[in-house]
Amino acid sequence: MNCVCGMQRRVRMVEYIRVVSKQRPAKRAFDMQVGAHLRVYIAGKITGDKNYREKFAKAEMVLTDMGHSVLNPANLPSGMEQGDYMRICFSMIDCADCVVLLPDWRESSGARLERAYAEKIGKEVVVADQGRIDEFLEKMGARA
């Protein structure tokens, strides 16, 4: 029964997200689904959020289960300056096919900067609360 439920979740996710890849001209429009194998950068609030690792891990799990390679800034080592983190994150965005913004991205100056950077260099940006990713992540959180 878990397989059916998991497949239903994936189908719902496909319904929610359409991605136009600017990095792969031969595949101009395709669904962000199992088999697409995108490199996805996750952006959201980290500073001031005690549960950021858990939140980012859930998002990573969902995207990984869909077959994507996830670039997760929450996995970076602690102890660096914010400018160092931003330089690393910009490099991760450079490598990504698209950026997924978690529901709390507006509360983070870093995530807002990541969004602006991604848009400036022509990356596709998927906003979670507009694409209903937040609903999906909440349901996936109940599964874990």
Question: What's the SSE blueprint?
Answer:
Elements: H1 2-16, E1 18-20, E2 29-31, E3 39-43, H2 52-65, E4 69-71, H3 82-95, E5 98-101, H4 109-120, E6 124-127, H5 128-131, H6 133-143
Parallel strand pairs: 3-4, 3-5, 5-6
Antiparallel strand pairs: 1-2
Helix pairs in contact: 1-6, 3-4
What does this structure look like?
By secondary structure, this protein is an alpha/beta fold. Helices cover 49% and strands 15% of the residues. The chain contains 6 helices and 6 strands; from the N terminus they run αβββαβαβαβαα. It has helices at 2-16, 52-65, 82-95, 109-120, 128-131, 133-143, and strands spanning 18-20, 29-31, 39-43, 69-71, 98-101, 124-127. The strands form 2 sheets. Strands 4-3-5-6 form a 4-stranded parallel sheet, with helices on both faces. Helix 2 (52-65) links the parallel strand 3 and strand 4. The protein is globular, with a radius of gyration of 15 Å. The two termini are 15 Å apart. The model is unreliable at 9-35 and 136-144 (pLDDT under 50).
